[in-house]
Every structure is written in C-alpha cells, then in structure tokens.
Amino acid sequence: MIKSRSIPISNILRKFTQRYASSQALATDLKNIVGNDNVATTASVREQHSHDESYHAGHVPDVVVFAQSTDHVSKIVKYCASKRVPVIPFGTGTGLEGGVTAPKGGVCLDLSRMDKVLSVNAEDFDCTVQAGVTRNALNTYIRDTGLQFPIDPGANASLGGMCATSASGTMAVRYGTMRENVMNLEVVLADGSIIKTAGLKGRSRKTSSGYNLTNLFVGQEGTLGIITEATLKLHAIPEAVLAAVAPFKDLRAAVNATVAIMQSGLPVARIEFLDENMVDACNRFSKLNLDVAPTLFLEFHGSNSNIEAQGRIAEETCKSFECLKFTFATETDRRNELWKARHNVWYAAHALRPGSKGYSTDVCVPISALPDMIQFADNEVKRLQLLGLTIGHVGDGNFHVILIVDPNDFEEIKRVHDFATILAKEALRMNGTITGEHGIGVGKKQLLIDEFGLHGINTMKIIKKALDPLNILNPGKIIDIEKGF
Amino acid sequence: MIKSRSIPISNILRKFTQRYASSQALATDLKNIVGNDNVATTASVREQHSHDESYHAGHVPDVVVFAQSTDHVSKIVKYCASKRVPVIPFGTGTGLEGGVTAPKGGVCLDLSRMDKVLSVNAEDFDCTVQAGVTRNALNTYIRDTGLQFPIDPGANASLGGMCATSASGTMAVRYGTMRENVMNLEVVLADGSIIKTAGLKGRSRKTSSGYNLTNLFVGQEGTLGIITEATLKLHAIPEAVLAAVAPFKDLRAAVNATVAIMQSGLPVARIEFLDENMVDACNRFSKLNLDVAPTLFLEFHGSNSNIEAQGRIAEETCKSFECLKFTFATETDRRNELWKARHNVWYAAHALRPGSKGYSTDVCVPISALPDMIQFADNEVKRLQLLGLTIGHVGDGNFHVILIVDPNDFEEIKRVHDFATILAKEALRMNGTITGEHGIGVGKKQLLIDEFGLHGINTMKIIKKALDPLNILNPGKIIDIEKGF
C-alpha cells in the first residue's frame, strides 16, 4: 500500500516538474523566435487563454505567444512541429464550443496583434485583412467607402476566428455565411509552409481552379492550418434600412409567420425569433419595454423606393398569423437599441442567474421543419426543468437555446448535456445539422459521428491525418485522431 | 539496328494483345457486377466517351459501364480499385477541358442512366437528384412548383457533371455558382465507400458541422470521388422578367458600362458581353438582325412593381457610356430568341469555319480589371492572327475567347496554346484566376501551378493522395500525381 501510494505521488511531481521545465524551455525558444514582448507565461495570461465564452472546462496552455506576422506564425508552427507540441490558435476567445481550450497543453497562438487591414478594393467590393482584425474594426476602417462587412455573429469576433468556425449570425439570411463571403485565405500549414487557398493573388468573384481549399479551411477550427489573412467580400451599405418588432400569441404562430415570409421570397435582411423568456431577459438587461411574448425582430435593406413595400409585405404576413402588434422602428436610435439588445442576449441571459455559465445549442433545420423543431425544444426544456431561453436566426432555420447553468451543479449540467443531445438528434432526424454556426470544438464530437456516419468521419480523419500528420494543430477539436483510427 | 527495330515492334504487339485481353476480362467482370446491358465495348461507344466538346485530344477508355444506382458505382469502383484500373466519370460529355478523356485507358463510368429526381421539397426550396439528371430535365420536372434551378452553363449538362466542374454560366451573377447552390452530395470514394458530404440526411441552409466536404467535392472533377447524388438549392421563378440589348461603339465602353452597373449594386440577373465577331456569328447562325458592334445582353428578375425601375437604371448607365441603342425585349419570344442565340455561341462560332475545333479560354478577374483584361485579350488575338470571338459573363469578371482552329494545323494550335497561356498569366497578374467555370481538366495543369505555387499544389496533392492512394479516380486531371511527388 505504501509503495503503491508513493509511486504515483513522485510520478505526479516528476511530471509536473518536467512539464514546468519544458514550459520554460518552450518559452525561451519562442522568445528567441518572436522576441520577449510576444511571449507570456504568467498564470493570468494563460488562464485568460484557456477558455472561451462557453461553459466548457478550460485547460491552460503552457505558453501564450503573440504573433505579429505570418512569418512569426510559420516559424512558431515549424518550431512546435519539431517539438511535437500542440498549437492552438486564439482570436478573441468569443467562441462557444471550447475551440480555444488546450486540453493537451502546448502553445496558444494569439493572433490579436495581427490587426492590420492590408487592402480595400472598394470598386471590387473586397478587402484583405490580417486574421486578428475584428469585425467592428474592419467596419470602422471602411466606413467612408459606403461598404460594409455585414456578417455579424453578435460578438466582436476576429475575422480569422470567424473564418475558422464558419461563423454567420443575424445577417446571414441576406448576405450569407463566412463560406459565401471568404474569397481567399492565407494559411500556415502544419509544417510551417504558407499557402493561399484561392491562388497566390486571387480575388476573383468565382473560380473553378483546382480543389476548393478556401472552403476546406473555412470551418476547420484551426485543426488543418492557422489562418493568417483573409480576403473578404464587402457589400454596399443599403440606401434605406427599416426594422420592425412583432410579438405573437404563441411561438408556433411566430415561427409559422417566419416560414411564410421566407417562402414568399422577400429578401429580408434579418429575421430573429425571441421566445418570451428571452424578451423578458432583454427588457431587464437592456432596459426595453417590449411585450413579453414570442417575438420577431425584422430588418429590411433596400432603396428608398422599395423599403416600405418590403415592410408592408412582412406586416401583412405577420398579421395573417395573428401577431399581437407590428411596430416599425424607423428611427436609427430605436433600431440600434433593438439590435444592441439582440446582440446582448448572451449577457442578458446570464444576468438572470448571477455566477452562472451558459451553454448554447445551435441546431439548424430546413425551414419547413422549424415550427415543430422549436416546439420540440420548448417542450424538452420544460420537461427537463432547465432555465432555457430561445433566440434564433429563424430565416435560416437556425436557433439557439441558451441554457443557464450553475457550473457547480453536476446534476444540472448532465441535464443540459442530455437536452443538447436530444435536440441535436431530433434536428438530424428532421434533415438538419447539429451546428449551424458555432462549430464542433470539444462539445459536439460524438454528435458529429451521428451526423456523418463512420465513412463521413473517416473522410475527415483522412484529411486531418494527411494535412497534420503529427496532430499538433488544435488537437482534440472536431475529431479525435487517436481514438479508433 | 535490326535488333533494335524488331524488339519494339514485338513489344508493341504484345502490349496491344495484353491490353485487348485485359479489356475483355474487364468487360466480363463488369457484366457480372452490373449486367450485360450496362457494359459496352464497341468502338463507337468507346469513341463517343473518349472526348468532350473541346479540341483536347480524345483517349478511348477500355470499357464503358453505365451505372444504374449508387450501389453499382460503389461496386464498380471497388472492382477497379482491386485491379488498379482508372475510373473516369462521364455525364453528358459537354465539358471543355478534356475532363472525360481516358489517357490511361480504364473504365468510363457513364452516369446518364442515374436520371431520377429523388425528392423535391418545394417549401424548403431544395431538391435531391441522381447525378445523371440534366439541368433541363430538372427544370421540366419542377415546372409546376414555381421554382427553378437557374444555374445555366449553356449546355444541357448533367447536374453531377456541373457539381464536379463547379459550373456556373449566365445566371451566376444573380444566383451564384454550383458552390453556392449545392447543399449536400452523395459521393463514392476510391475504396467504394459511400459518404454524404453534409451529413447523412442534411439539407439545412447553413452548417458549421465538421470539414466542408461538400465544397471539397464540388469542382474536384472526379479525381477525389464519384458524385452520385446532389441536394440542390432551388429559387423562385421571378414574377417579372425583362431583357435588353445594348450595342456600344467599342468594347471598352461596353465593359465600362458593365463595371458601373455592377458597382451600383443593381441585382442584374444576367449581363453578357459579346464582341462584334460574336454578334456577327450569332446573326448568321441564329438568324438575328443585331447591330454588329460590341454588345451587352441584359436580364432583370423582379416583381412587376420594380422590374421597370431596374431596367431604367441599366438603361441610364449604358447611355452614360454612350451606347448606340438600348432596346428592351419585353416579349417572352424575343427574350428566348436572344438567350437561345447566346447559348448557341459555341456552335455559331464553329459554323464560321467548317471542320474546325474550338477552344475556349475562361479567365476571371476582379471587375475593376475587366476593361483592361478584355482589351488585352482583343489585342493578343489580333497580334497572333487567330480567329477569336469573345463572350463573357462580365458581371462576374469572367469571359471566354472562343478560338476556332483547324485541328490539323499544328502551327495554329501552337498559337492558340500560346494565347491561352499569355491570357491566363495576365489574369493572374491582375489578381484573377485561370478558370472561372470550366475547370482544369487536362488543359490547365501547368497554369494551376502558376496560380497556386508549389505549396498550394502540394496541398492539393496531399489531399488527392490521401483520398485516392492508388490514383485510380480520373487520373491525369487537375494534378499529375506521378510527377514530382
């Protein structure tokens, strides 16, 4: 007994000492590559880089290194490959599936200092940015061009991170997701080599040239390569914008109205559903005075001559589904107030229960299945006695149930897990997907197998193994290479 | 001398006899798999499957096999893998880069008998088809739903083939290319396994679930897998359609007008440029009476209330670039006559020179570079004394110079090659791509290296080698695996 106790303790101590020594050696080597100012090993910086905004358990990296250039990234990856050390790219840490945690330790590669807008081609409606430029920073930079980058996941995420997770958000129903808006990427591969996914200088609107590497690297969550630059489509700021709010007597009426609006072909710019819990949370957090009822937030983009017609069609449709009210928000201030409240739902939901952590489901289904799907979610939240608030990009068939949990209540966390699994499987049964925009991260690896089946997952593994044979790029995310390969 | 002559001749004879014997054995084995009626070895059927519509040299396959089901395709691929025999998928043979030729012999896998529309979900604007369904067949099938599949490469191509080459055409400026319109694919991989690229049952409008396999298989030209089914987005047939024709005094004025229309954000549905040679050929072939001048064909899709406004904006823009005329084609018959003529340009160009073969360039550049690019092409055609006619999907920055050559005049063919290379390199210099919609096939493999550089090409090779380790899937297309890997 004495022996069996003493060995593990000394093992643990030796392991800890080795890990600490190797962390120090890592940091020293990395300082030689990128300079002292770009390497951090303090507990606070490492902790800050150990987690995203979700309830997924954080794991601290051994070192945080701040890249200032693509050359830095290439050298860091080459070094990590030589040492067989994991590299985890980090943008703003606003992800929701644990994509930036470091379960195997290693080097967190923070790209936030790569924050330059490299070019704006207003006449071609495109721009090229470094990976660390945020969505808001880009829109501020280009505000005098009459153009915008409309993809809006809520958080002020980095554009590199948005590429890596295939983000979308409220505007996707009109402007598409990152998949449709990324024209080219600069990527550092697992051996440190640098590629451009759509040609060395390519920024044409379409191409059939070779394999579509761009869309292989959009959504790969840092597991196939580190995105260092992105060429993005820009869109004209609309001449006229009109918003509206429509509360309904029940959720099914609101969702049915959405389905009818989408099927009419109206080019709605945003159409967001909030259940009554969510409206209530918004009222409290954002000091609004909305009717507490299942509600649609709508926005229309167009010309001065057609914007009112768009609004009227939506109004008629909502009224035919017996909405309780249909109120236009014509003034910019009122519109901004509404969308700011919409964007703060994550924080509004957390504010209901101090000290809580949130988890957001992210299923997406064909639009015709949406009423049944949201009703199903509502029933299950009640059955499992969870605090769940529903918010959805319903025009795309995508919605989130934000579950507010006590991070110390393991029984409650288990119910959240059960709910997420039940919901995802129901979405698959309805020809949907387990994630419309958040990605897989650490949270949905098992469900991914349900979605794709063994041959599909095997295809992903073949690609991962071919492009990252040492499994150093964000290991343990999307697919587990060690298990069963 | 005698010895050195006699050995090659006996070698050739032996090789021929071996190849013939192995072809017969292949056919016998394949008949056991798919039945006698689905295997052809006659010279005429093999010749018909040896080439597409381009001037690329045809190479006959050893056997042509007609798959009737995904199960057939899987079994055929498994069999070919066991024998290390190439498998070349074949749709309608309307490609333009030699993608269906069989330079290494092997099995041509004709998918035209997989011609069932499997499902139409009108309320979700999607459908699922077998790979052999043609574009026209689908649109005929769904004509009562109020929906259409608008992607229109001109030829009545199979939808599987359009997925495989990432086709687009005249409507892409409004509705996107295949990349934006394919939601899911069923693919048979090199080992015969069957995957669905966006989940086993997935047909949601967006997804961030795992690697984007769908867009890896769109545009892979049969080199990574055989596409057997496709789930496609459908679009509402517009309430109102308006077409217009605008001849200009010179090509630069016409292209500058296009750039201005695109930059205004007008949601034009088609905007096609024809140079004066092309207009002349259309007049002759399609019995039209157009002014022989650089010309834009335009089309607008919208509602009865906004269609005229769209047309007026385009008219004002064209007039500001001093168009010679601007004539609306409001009647359906006149509109169809124009677009039929547009679709027949390939044949109209060939009719100028009986017995000729055509080659079409396919560069695509950012819209701001388009006037210089088309002018450059025009100058080079004249300098090299070629018969070249220019036609373009200019709203996307994509245009074709159709070169009409005497297939027996090797000196002329060399000049065509030189022209295509010069044009592609100029497009790359202008941040464009060597192919907007035709793909690489056998014709542009060297230029692909110029476009992507060695690390980019190497990434494609890694993926090809990982997914098709025996190099049996359409070998010799897109990239050469044997060379330099």
UniProtKB/TrEMBL annotation, chains A, B:
<comment type="similarity">
    <text>Belongs to the FAD-binding oxidoreductase/transferase type 4 family.</text>
</comment>
<dbReference type="GO" id="GO:0071949">
    <property type="term" value="F:FAD binding"/>
</dbReference>
<keyword id="KW-0285">Flavoprotein</keyword>
<dbReference type="GO" id="GO:0005739">
    <property type="term" value="C:mitochondrion"/>
</dbReference>
<comment type="function">
    <text>Involved in D-lactate, but not L-lactate catabolic process.</text>
</comment>
<dbReference type="InterPro" id="IPR004113">
    <property type="entry name" value="FAD-bd_oxidored_4_C"/>
</dbReference>
<feature type="domain" description="FAD-binding PCMH-type">
    <location>
        <begin position="57"/>
        <end position="237"/>
    </location>
</feature>
<keyword id="KW-0809">Transit peptide</keyword>
<keyword id="KW-0274">FAD</keyword>
<keyword id="KW-0560">Oxidoreductase</keyword>
<protein>
    <recommendedName>
        <fullName>Probable D-lactate dehydrogenase, mitochondrial</fullName>
        <ecNumber>1.1.2.4</ecNumber>
    </recommendedName>
</protein>
<dbReference type="InterPro" id="IPR036318">
    <property type="entry name" value="FAD-bd_PCMH-like_sf"/>
</dbReference>
<dbReference type="InterPro" id="IPR016169">
    <property type="entry name" value="FAD-bd_PCMH_sub2"/>
</dbReference>
<dbReference type="GO" id="GO:1903457">
    <property type="term" value="P:lactate catabolic process"/>
</dbReference>
<dbReference type="InterPro" id="IPR006094">
    <property type="entry name" value="Oxid_FAD_bind_N"/>
</dbReference>
<keyword id="KW-0007">Acetylation</keyword>
<comment type="subunit">
    <text>Interacts with CSRP3.</text>
</comment>
<dbReference type="GO" id="GO:0004458">
    <property type="term" value="F:D-lactate dehydrogenase (cytochrome) activity"/>
</dbReference>
<dbReference type="GO" id="GO:0008720">
    <property type="term" value="F:D-lactate dehydrogenase (NAD+) activity"/>
</dbReference>
<dbReference type="Pfam" id="PF02913">
    <property type="entry name" value="FAD-oxidase_C"/>
</dbReference>
<dbReference type="InterPro" id="IPR016171">
    <property type="entry name" value="Vanillyl_alc_oxidase_C-sub2"/>
</dbReference>
<dbReference type="InterPro" id="IPR016164">
    <property type="entry name" value="FAD-linked_Oxase-like_C"/>
</dbReference>
<dbReference type="InterPro" id="IPR016166">
    <property type="entry name" value="FAD-bd_PCMH"/>
</dbReference>
<dbReference type="Pfam" id="PF01565">
    <property type="entry name" value="FAD_binding_4"/>
</dbReference>
<keyword id="KW-0496">Mitochondrion</keyword>
